Amino acid sequence: MIVTATEFKTNLGKYLELAAIQDIFITKNGKSIARVTSPQVNKLELLDGLVGVVPASADDEKTAREERLSRQ
User: Fold this and answer.
1) What is the reported pTM?
2) Does 3 have pLDDT greater than 90?
3) FRET partner for 1 with CA separation of 20 to 30 A, picked from 22, 52, 60, 61?
């Protein structure tokens, strides 16, 4: 969910309750400045879900690195 800083400040309690079930992105002047998230999220479980997404071969790793660096 995306909310403005003013809206977040006005309804802090509401958004703190919502943060337990979803991330809250706070914006100011149209730019994202903060994220409120639940400390209960098991981040290791999320990382386990990513295993196998990137191929393990060295050639693919090199290609992925070169592509990432070319975007910078």
Assistant:
1) 0.56
2) yes
3) 52
